[in-house]
Amino acid sequence: MSSTAKKAICILSGGMDSTLASYIAKNDGYEIIAVHFNYGQRTEQRELKAFRDICNDLGILEKYEIDIPFFTQIGASALTDSSIDVPTEGVKPGVPITYVPFRNGIFLSITAAIAEKEEATAMYIGVVQEDSSGYPDCTDEFIQDMTKAINQGTKEETKIEIKTPLVHLSKAQIVQEALKLDVPLEHTWSCYKEQNEACGVCDSCRLRLNGFKEAGSSDPIPYKAI
Fold this sequence. Notes:
7-cyano-7-deazaguanine synthase, alpha/beta, ATP binding
């Protein structure tokens, strides 16, 4: 693309949601710059592989792999503290122990710095409000407030829109949309626990598998237990 092409920074974890959001960004006509965060999560290496595979699929040339070591110092989440077990008995009411404190706020802040440097006008994030695990940093209201803060705290000529194309979709709708756009779902990774075969029982696996089931399709990644 030419240097005058509109640019978007896509926060790409390597999961199904962020991958679909990145494909939507491409369909929206943006030149994509991808950003991935290694933050001490249990499946850090597997997510990084997924990120790199998807960047290849999308032909993304410019990407950032950002290390955030302090989440393991903070702990408080089963994703970043190995002494806390990842729950496997299904989604329960309230904010689950897999919630990483203010993770999306920190991701968006770092991405905003990249967006300002790259003169991007959009940031895509695959947050899902209605079918998530109840994370407070996945809501419309939070994203609107972050957008305001980011534009308030950057240069006057910097105008950034945070795009959340999946925020009101169910997991089944996400699967359907991904299939429609030929998203390589076999390259995505959602499991909170395992890096070779997905566990099939953590909240993320359950939501993903249920989405495929409701969409009348089968998940192409390997599972230990279904």
